[in-house]
């Protein structure tokens, strides 16, 4: 349980955001199926990415930590297992969904399990396209454990009805070893880190709007440096906009346009952040972000193609909306119910308990602002890292202290969160 008090001074100074979780997963996966030796720098310290490292180590890939953020990986690109392979993916949906795409074409039997939350998350979304490619996957009514009997696959053209980078990546990774061409079309573009990294490692891949095509390809290992995670930076961006007198810089934040929906919302609400020192690292755009307190925020509508570009930021955006004048409406975000928790229900319950005027809808929520947050309660974060950090930021604005339950789950993506917050609070 974490106690959080109202902050009576601005946040200031400079922090560096740790590595992007999505890119860290992909760096380990793709380097493990590539040929050769590579170094991955600035790797995520989150538990989810450690689940991916552990899984590939168990598959016999040589992976060593040369320090806590640097990995050395050596592979000949061939994954094999003499016995049936069984491994847990912990809490990580990205691990389970992407690795299933990789293992579907490896000629051995694999069983992937997950913790309680992961076992409740829908897997049919990857099973369906992979089975159309010829994969043989057993599940328990579309849920983990997944039992994968490796088979030869064939390319398909698949039209997905959801914009999910995990489904897209699973199909593309299977497509790397399928006969013929694999094309994936999504309704709105979701994060494209898999496509960028596949291109960086030499795969035969092209993207055209919402459609990606991959041909059977061998990957050549190459060093990768991972940029900072905008989904982690989002908590500090919102804290800086809402806590009076804040003025600070967040260094090294990934600004891939498929992830910067949060920055669009900030400007739609009438605030702005400044991007400095823009450059590209291992194929991904990155910048430093200058954040300043903003007194007059206004509500906005968030829907359609906004959603995949800020899906993980919606909980902290709800906190931002509580301090914006008017009605902020989030629509078309029903997939939020399939995250580490039912993020619509759990978010609404937590934020209402501290005084936010928030209403649950089937596919999102409505926040009416601006509200003075009361606090003085214990808030349950349902073992969901992003809810825990969102409630912490809300706590900085509450009249009375709050306590965030199951706060330790922030370790899933962002173990450094509190240390960085203190750096900004204590910088005089
Ligand atoms: C992710 C994709 C998104 C996101 C998740 C990470 C990824 O999930 O919510 O935190 O790394 O591909 P969906 O693909 O289910 O939208």
Topology:
Layout: E1 2-4, E2 12-16, H1 21-32, E3 35-41, H2 47-58, E4 62-67, E5 70-76, E6 85-88, H3 93-103, E7 109-113, H4 116-119, H5 124-132, E8 136-140, E9 143-149, E10 153-154, E11 157-159, H6 165-175, E12 178-179, E13 181-185, H7 193-200, E14 205-208, E15 211-215, E16 224-225, H8 230-242, E17 247-254, H9 261-268, E18 274-281, E19 284-292, E20 297-298, E21 301-302, H10 314-321, E22 324-330, H11 343-353, E23 357-361, E24 364-369, E25 378-380, H12 385-395, E26 402-405, H13 417-426
Parallel strand pairs: 2-17, 3-16, 6-7, 10-12, 11-13, 20-22, 21-22, 25-26
Antiparallel strand pairs: 1-26, 3-5, 4-5, 7-9, 8-9, 13-15, 14-15, 17-19, 18-19, 22-24, 23-24
The structure holds shikimate-3-phosphate.
Structure report:
The chain has two domains: 2-19 and 227-426, UDP-n-acetylglucosamine1-carboxyvinyl-transferase, Chain, CATH 3.65.10; 21-225, Enolpyruvate transferase domain (UDP-n-acetylglucosamine1-carboxyvinyl-transferase, Chain, Alpha-beta prism), CATH 3.65.10.10. It is built from 13 helices and 26 strands. Strands 20, 21, 22, 23 and 24 form a five-stranded mixed sheet that branches. It has a four-stranded mixed sheet with strand order 2-17-19-18. A hairpin with a 2-residue loop joins strand 23 and strand 24 (364-369). It has helices spanning 21-32, 47-58, 93-103, 116-119, 124-132, 165-175, 193-200, 230-242, 261-268, 314-321, 343-353, 385-395, 417-426, and strands at residues 2-4, 12-16, 35-41, 62-67, 70-76, 85-88, 109-113, 136-140, 143-149, 153-154, 157-159, 178-179, 181-185, 205-208, 211-215, 224-225, 247-254, 274-281, 284-292, 297-298, 301-302, 324-330, 357-361, 364-369, 378-380, 402-405. It has 428 residues and is of the alpha/beta class. Helix 1 (21-32) runs parallel beside helix 7 (193-200), helix 5 (124-132) runs parallel beside helix 6 (165-175) and helix 8 (230-242) runs parallel beside helix 10 (314-321). Bound molecules: shikimate-3-phosphate. Shikimate-3-phosphate (S3P) is lined by residues 22, 94, 164-166, 169, 191, 311-312, 335.
């Amino acid at each position: 349980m974490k106690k959080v008090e109202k902050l009576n001074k601005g946040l200031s100074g400079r922090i560096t955001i740790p590595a992007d979780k999505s890119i860290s997963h992909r760096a380990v996966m793709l380097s493990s199926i590539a040929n050769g030796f590579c170094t991955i720098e600035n790797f995520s310290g989150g538990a989810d990415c450690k689940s991916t490292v552990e899984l590939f180590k168990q598959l016999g890939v040589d992976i060593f930590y040369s320090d806590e953020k640097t990995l050395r990986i050596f592979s000949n690109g061939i994954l094999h297992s003499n016995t049936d392979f069984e491994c847990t993916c912990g809490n990580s949906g990205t691990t389970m969904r992407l690795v299933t795409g990789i293992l579907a074409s490896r000629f051995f039997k694999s069983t992937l399990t997950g913790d309680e939350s992961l076992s409740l998350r829908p897997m049919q979304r990857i099973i369906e396209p992979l089975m159309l490619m010829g994969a043989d996957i057993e599940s328990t009514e579309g849920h983990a454990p997944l039992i994968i009997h490796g088979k030869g696959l064939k390319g398909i053209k698949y039209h997905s009805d959801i914009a999910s980078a995990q489904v897209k990546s699973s199909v593309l990774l299977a497509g790397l070893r399928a006969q013929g061409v694999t094309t994936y079309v999504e309704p709105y573009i979701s994060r494209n880190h898999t496509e960028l990294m596949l291109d960086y490692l030499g795969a035969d891949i092209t993207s055209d709007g919402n459609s990606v095509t991959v041909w059977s390809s061998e990957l050549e290992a190459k060093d990768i440096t991972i940029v900072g995670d905008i989904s982690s930076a989002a908590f500090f961006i919102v804290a800086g906009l809402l806590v009076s007198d804040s003025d600070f810089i967040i260094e090294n934040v990934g600004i891939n346009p498929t992830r910067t929906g949060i920055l669009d919302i900030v400007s739609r609400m009438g605030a702005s952040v400044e991007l400095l020192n823009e450059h590209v690292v291992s194929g991904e755009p990155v910048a430093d972000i200058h954040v300043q307190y903003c007194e007059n925020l206004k509500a906005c509508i968030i829907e359609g193609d906004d959603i995949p570009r800020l899906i993980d930021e919606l909980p902290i955006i709800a906190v931002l909306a509580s301090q914006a004048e008017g009605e902020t409406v989030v629509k078309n975000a029903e997939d939020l119910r399939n995250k580490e928790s039912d993020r619509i229900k759990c978010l609404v319950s937590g934020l209402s308990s501290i005084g936010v005027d928030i209403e649950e809808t089937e596919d999102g929520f409505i926040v009416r602002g601006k509200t003075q947050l009361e606090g003085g309660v214990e808030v349950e974060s349902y073992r969901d890292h992003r809810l825990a950090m969102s409630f912490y930021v809300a706590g900085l604005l509450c009249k009375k202290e709050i306590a965030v339950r199951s706060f330790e789950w922030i370790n899933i993506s962002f173990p450094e969160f509190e240390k960085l917050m203190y750096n900004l609070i204590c910088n005089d």
